[in-house]
């Protein structure tokens, strides 16, 4: 089977990291308190806002760890091929 004919592997273990942004906000005991306060905001609010960059970083890490080198090569349907001198 040629690499072009291969099906994408959705069972990559790196995808398990995507459970972090899903599970951590469900752990209510982490932020179920008023103290400590950050700039006057109770823990619930600033921790919820802190989870946004965490989710972005985890998603970015999984994307970078799971993309294949073939994703970086331009194809004929890619509009940037003409700019690079392709036909």
Structure at a glance:
The chain is an all-alpha fold.
Notable traits:
about 90 residues, single chain, 3 helices, mainly alpha
Structure write-up:
It comes from Luedemannella flava. Keywords: Membrane, Transmembrane, Transmembrane helix. It holds the Pfam family DUF3311. The chain crosses the membrane at residues 14-32, 44-63. It is a single chain. The chain has 87 residues and is mostly helical. It has a domain at 13-65. The protein has three helices and no strands. It has helices at 20-23, 43-66, 80-83.
Record the SSE blueprint.
Blueprint: H1 20-23, H2 43-66, H3 80-83
Helicity range? 25-40%
Structural class: mainly alpha
Contiguous uncertain segments of 5+ residues? none
Strand composition percent: under 5%
């Amino acid at each position: 089977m040629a690499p072009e004919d291969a099906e994408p592997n959705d069972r990559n273990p790196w995808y398990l990291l995507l459970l972090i942004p899903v599970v951590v906000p469900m752990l209510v005991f982490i932020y179920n308190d008023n103290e400590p306060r950050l700039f006057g905001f109770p823990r619930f609010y600033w921790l919820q806002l802190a989870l946004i960059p965490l989710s972005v970083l985890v998603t970015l890490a999984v994307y970078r760890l799971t993309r294949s080198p073939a994703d970086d090569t331009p194809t004929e349907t890619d509009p940037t091929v003409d700019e690079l001198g392709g036909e």
